[in-house]
Amino acid sequence: MNDDIERVLYSQADIATACERLGKQLTNDYQDKVPLILSVLSGAVFFTTDVTRQMDVYAQMDFVDVSSYNGGTHSSGEVRLVTDIAEDVSGRDVLIIEDIVDTGRTLKFIIDLLKRRHAKSVKVCTLLDKPTGRVLEVEADYVGFVVPSEFVVGYGLDYKGEYRNLPYVGVLKPEIYMNK
Fold this sequence. Notes:
By secondary structure, this protein is α/β, with parallel strands linked by helices. It contains four helices and nine strands. The protein has one domain: Rossmann fold.
């Protein structure tokens, strides 16, 4: 797998430092609340685990799975709910934890879903923000790194379900996904 990576953007140490920084911010902002942490499957699992372990607040956790990539390198433009939230979000402070905010379609879909279900507040924490890919106006409240407009994998991010288990975020060599 490592041979498929053009270059490492964020090392394991870089990510750990970002998780610690974000965990402190979230601890401060949620000190007197019990947020429902909503991890977006499957990409955000590693990040959710690492950042929430840095939070010193009472919290509950749930998961949602939405898809717009369908295994490719570009969003299909259509977002579908694969696995719904189990918890009732009505009147709750919800913190969405995402691996990457790219086009904004997936995030807007989840935010709109939570608002329709009467969440008290909705905030977003993302490992990576790719503003150059934005199609819809959405913003993350907490950002680990702003990422360039390249196809990245690792630390939860995938290509066709692979590379998620890399301990870093790297740029996938174009020859891996071109003409496939």
